[in-house]
Amino acid sequence: MKKKAVRTYTVSAKYYDAAYAAKKDLVDLPFYVELAKKYGGPVLEIGCGTGRVLLPIVREGVEIHGADQSPAMLRVLKKRLKSESREVRSKVRLFQGDMRTVRLKKKYSLVIMPFRPLQHMHTLKDQIAALTSAAAHLNKGGVFAFDVFLPKFEGIAAAIGQKRLELEWNDPEDATKVVRRYYRMESWDKINQTFAGTFRFEIHQGEKLLAEETETLRMTYYLYPQLRALFLLADLEAVKEYGSFAKTPLDDTAEQMVFLVRKRKSGR
Length: 268
Fold this sequence. Notes:
By secondary structure, the protein is of the alpha/beta class.
């Protein structure tokens, strides 16, 4: 059987750290660091990417294991680890693996999936597989924490066909250059609850465009009852649910859905 293709994030990996350092409304880090300190190591992060969450956790002295399917993302993380202390490096183990199928020979008190990797799962089969994979790594009493955004349908409709500037930052290697990330939404599949578009990274020096690269992005969005149904299908149950990383209620004012789930007591 032909192996299903997965996104490798080859382009995005090059810009990821600088881009999200410039994203001022990205406030999930204290939430996941606090959880890791509460449950203790080792923690498993599925979809660890370039280490945006993993590195702050291990710098707090918590051992962490990271899994990601993108070789490009893991290369960036390994490069970043070289500049960390020996003590920090000794508390990190990295694995390449698809979130749907990865199985490490260890159980954890805490498994995390920060910054919406579940929204890259576009079929019911893949969604259940990803949740089941996370659950398979939980020890007795272990907790799995993840987040997804609450969709703003009016925003999706208005964005189709528009090239929008999302982020802008100075090139870390040359302060005379500015990198701008645009996103153009191309389509919205209302039945399958996905939208698709293209990232465009442009490097400017003054008024001159020096280079540009593109990479596609497709995301699935979820509704609350749908997630609760997915938990049942994956033999999971919610322990806590929040509408923000400040642990506000999950209600009509929420913009995020943040969950802590565990294996169902009546499950396998």
